[in-house]
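This section describes the prediction task in plain terms. A model, or a person checking by hand, is given the sequence of a single protein chain and must write out its three-dimensional structure as a string of tokens. No templates, partner chains or ligands are provided. The sample shown here is typical of the held-out split.
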Amino acid sequence: MKLKLSIFFLFLSFKLVAQHNFVLNGVCSKNTVSKNIYLTYNVNGKSITKSSQIHNNKFVFKGEIDFPVKAIICTDARFYMTNLNSKVFYLEPCIMNAKLDFDDLSTIVINGSKTNDEFNVLQNTTEKKKNRKKNDSIRELSRLYSAKMIETNDKSLKIKFQESLDSLDHQLDQLVDQSIKKNKQLDFEFIKKNPNSFVAPDLLDYILEEENNQIPYETIENLYNKLGSEVKKSYGGKQLAEKLNYFKNSRIGSLASDFKGSDVNADFLQLSSFRNNKYVLLDFWASWCGPCREDFPFLKEMYSKYKDKGFEIISVTKDEKLDLWRATIQKENIEKWKHFSIKENKSTIEDTYVVTAIPTKILIDKDGNIIGRWIGSSAENIEAIENMITEIFDN
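The expected answer:
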């Protein structure tokens, strides 16, 4: 009896472990000799990359995951992705089968994953396919006109080809803008109709990141609250919950999250130390970011004008090369205000303030509340910042 129970529990343990395994069996439709194919995915913030050698036109990937997870299969070991050498899909803790052309992964067919089937349906709606077709046709025309312009020596023809290229670029920009809006609408509809799909939190996460606080927090929170319990437990669900918390605490009207560390001069710097004393403009930038540096003349003007009235700037750099960061501060002559390195301080401030693009500027009042947030470098943003700071200090 004890032996039977031991065998039973051993079998049960094996079954439970097996439930967390995935197997992706692949078959190449063409003869592929001695080549490798690669897979990457993320589990709880940890990136996992695997390789598999193709033997007799077959390959296999195995691993452990508790929930469906977005993955990329690619023929380039560096994951320099193109439409032909890579494909985004969903891994699931089950046995899946893939059939592909090694030279064109855009045609890959993957069976066995319910989540990947849902993802494919979303990606291949009539509207999205129509937009991709228009996009491809415009790009093909652009390629043809570019080739013709290079081939001809006739200046008048070159001018006409350039005009055509400019027109096509304009059409493509309009199409991209329209596609983004329509795709977002389709994604929202999918999330509402499929709260138990593991694709849903990834879509919400993408919307949250791309919109940079443009969509009301309540809208995203409401959709998250309606997700199924298992979906919320998934890797994507937990990541979304964490980002939502950051999003809530980084929007206009929220109390600015405190941070501390050493500044560029190795002096102690803490955001909360300015509370009840100064207005603070957080400026997220990097030395390699041209638009960020274009804003420095304006920032220097504002700082010179209002530093004695209670205005401070803390520039937060994304630079990995700290010597270059320090050299740029000197070159741009911006040593007068505070400088904070994310790398040097091993800081998570980017996540805390949901900074997904630079430059990003955040204005904090004397009470420590966020009163302004601007993404990107533009005349409109500079005008808005100047108007707000001027109204604070000149009235």
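For orientation: The chain is about 45% helix and 25% strand.
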